[in-house]
Write a structure and sequence with these properties.
38% of the residues lie in helices and 20% in strands. Strand 8 and strand 9 form a beta hairpin. The protein is globular. The protein contains 18 helices and 18 strands. Helix 9 crosses helix 11. The strands form 4 sheets. Strands 15-12-14-13-17-18-16 form a 7-stranded antiparallel β-sheet, sandwiched between helices. It is an alpha+beta fold and 468 residues long.
């Protein structure tokens, strides 16, 4: 190993080969601080050529590689295991915006660029990069691509697979695939881009990407809405699509406990309603029309929903500050739940038509099996993605409750599968859901995935032990 590490130091500089525990600590612990791995070294290359050089060294010495961006993942996909045999290859130094092509509406960026950095660069050109996540100040675009991240604007713009036109990738053999093509049509064989997106670094290392940009909306309309059931929320979504389909840029579901925890742990955020309801929807329209026209469209939708007795009440934001407060309430749910204590998270997707029945049936099953457990249900109802989280009873010992995690996961995932859904909508599989994947994927699917893995990474050095 001494020879390997010496060669790494020669390739990228001794100061960027981290060997001491104190230097490695931030790279080895997962975002939720539930697991910590061990690494032979943390390697911090500065460009694609250095990444390729390091991968060739790892292939030569048969050293496993764990690619890592901002390390904000939630499924233990970006940290190494406990063996200490792998290196963490951090892409944080690959953080340059290479080019912005306003005529083509694209931006070419390094994989280590922060999502917020890309959003701001687009904004400076009066354009929009629409991916929006609570972790946008710390997550990187490479990580977003590796997990096919979604966020709050998928209903309008799609997830990362739809937001990316081209990739630059270092293969498991240390070769560079120069696929940074800003083409919206390229029917020249297998779509390698889509294969690499969502692969969580198991097939290659994404080092750069060509991203789609959009015209920046000229106006927004934001409403916070009270509803008495999740069925009503689905009816409201159907109504909104009928009347405002091209304008809907956000449709977020929030249950009562989710909002209650936010008010409890972030009292500085202004309450929208004094009266509680079982569910809420945060609805956003965005348009190239005038503010008045967008406001009128939103107001008419609310009026129609009230007349149809779909909703109980609604507040339309009358200022940017009010709109930001509404979004802060939504985006603070995960942080509020973390302050409340430990919980069991599920990132699932379902056909929108089946979400209400799933929630009703699964809530009941969980209450019967684990009395007084608390449901923190929220997420991107517009694209069928729920963050369906189970918290301990208010007076329970959280560590004792987590003993039931496998049982709860099985119940929730079995129900998800029963209703035609997926056990991972946007967080990925990592190691956390690896065994669960074996339960729900068909033998044919798993065989195809394993064959692809063996073909592209025959030495099994690219993030081994993740996904399959």
């Amino acid at each position: 190993m001494h020879n390997f590490l010496s060669l790494c130091k020669s390739a990228i500089g001794e100061e960027h080969v981290l060997l001491e525990a104190v230097q490695q600590a931030a790279y080895l612990q997962d975002w939720r601080q539930r697991a910590t791995g061990k690494a032979l070294a943390v390697l911090r290359p500065a460009n694609t050529e250095q990444v390729a050089h390091l991968v060739r060294l790892c292939a030569q010495f048969q050293i496993p590689i764990v690619p890592q961006g901002g390390n904000t993942g939630l499924v233990l996909g970006s940290i190494p295991d406990q063996s200490g045999n792998a290196v963490v290859l951090s892409l944080q130094r690959l953080n340059q915006i290479r080019a912005i092509d306003t005529a083509n509406s694209t931006m070419t960026v390094d994989a280590g660029c922060l999502l917020a950095q890309i959003q701001n660069a687009a904004d400076e050109q009066n354009l929009l990069f629409p991916l929006s996540l609570a972790s946008e100040g710390s997550c990187t675009i490479g990580g977003n691509l590796s997990t096919n991240a979604g966020g709050t604007a998928v209903l309008r713009y799609g997830n990362m697979r739809e937001l990316c036109l081209g990739l630059e990738v270092v293969t498991a053999q240390g070769e560079i695939w120069h696929g940074l093509r800003g083409l919206r049509k390229d029917n020249t064989g297998y779509d390698l881009r889509d294969l690499l997106i969502g692969a969580e670094g198991t097939l290659g290392i994404i080092t750069a990407a060509v991203l789609k940009l959009y015209p920046k909306p000229l106006s927004y309309g934001t409403a916070f809405i009270r509803l008495n059931s999740i069925q009503a929320a689905v009816r409201l979504l159907t109504l909104a699509k009928q009347h405002c389909h091209t304008s809907i840029s956000g449709f977020e579901l929030i249950n009562q406990l989710s909002l209650q925890l936010v008010h409890q742990h972030f009292p500085q955020l202004q309450r929208v309603f004094t009266e509680a309801s079982p569910f809420y929807v945060l609805l956003e329209l965005s348009s190239s029309d005038t503010e008045q026209a967008t406001y009128q469209q939103l107001e008419q939708l609310i009026t129609n929903a009230l007349n149809a007795q779909i909703i109980e009440d609604a507040v339309i934001a009358n200022s940017l500050a009010q709109a930001k407060n509404c979004w802060a309430l939504r985006e603070s749910i995960s942080a509020a739940q973390a302050k409340e204590g430990k919980n069991i998270k599920h990132d699932i997707s379902l056909p929108i038509s089946r979400i209400a029945d799933f929630v009703t049936e699964t809530d009941l099953a969980l209450q019967q099996a684990f009395p007084d457990c608390r449901m923190v249900t929220f997420g991107h109802l517009g694209d069928g993605n729920l963050h369906y989280n189970v918290s301990p009873p208010s007076d329970a010992n959280h560590d004792q409750f987590l003993i039931h995690q496998n049982q709860i996961n099985r119940l929730v995932h079995d129900k998800t599968h029963q209703f035609g859904g997926s056990i991972s909508a946007e967080h990925g599989i990592g190691t956390l859901k690896k065994e669960e994947l074996l339960r729900y994927k068909s033998t044919v699917e798993l065989t195809m995935m394993r064959n692809i893995k063996r073909a592209l990474d025959p030495q099994n050095i690219m993030n081994p032990g993740k996904i399959i």
